[in-house]
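the two lines:
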Amino acid sequence: NAGVTQTPKFQVLKTGQSMTLQCAQDMNHNSMYWYRQDPGMGLRLIYYSASEGTTDKGEVPNGYNVSRLNKREFSLRLESAAPSQTSVYFCASTLTGPSDTQYFGPGTRLTVL
Amino acid sequence: EDQVTQSPEALRLQEGESSSLNCSYTVSGLRGLFWYRQDPGKGPEFLFTLYSAGEEKEKERLKATLTKKESFLHITAPKPEDSATYLCAVAGGTSYGKLTFGQGTILTVHP
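prediction for all of em together
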């Protein structure tokens, strides 16, 4: 099992460019999550998908969109990147709900110039 | 709103010098308290889940405990390879699908 995988590992964008961060899990988990991690701010939830076909906003959703493509894949899209979106992005998944352990991917380090 | 505060922000220990990390939390209906380890440039790695006050879990040199207001991560006779950032998070009953994280404690163990 690869667990949770993320692509790309690193990305540099110019302000206004768009991109999609990809996440996939092979653990047959139902719920998937996108977080961002910034120095001094901790991990903050952007969006989550409790099950295939559903998505909900987290703490910091502005400027992002998500797609739960199927049970395995959950993508995060930046339509018009801003310097404030410079961060490290983590995808996570869990079997059912919040009482279950969330397993994290290796992260994508994004810089917006 | 769920809140998690970790202390200290940073902790420097000598190899073999035992200590504890603190995680204070406020949550409506605790559904789980989680401890993760994070190495530089990597994603958080799961350590423990605690569900109710009085619960304890151990793994090698680490032991996690839980009360109604806080959790402790005790590190016994640490080694340099225990150096990492330790993250605490809670899942509350009113925030389905969301973990609230603390800012972490950066642990450095010197040989």
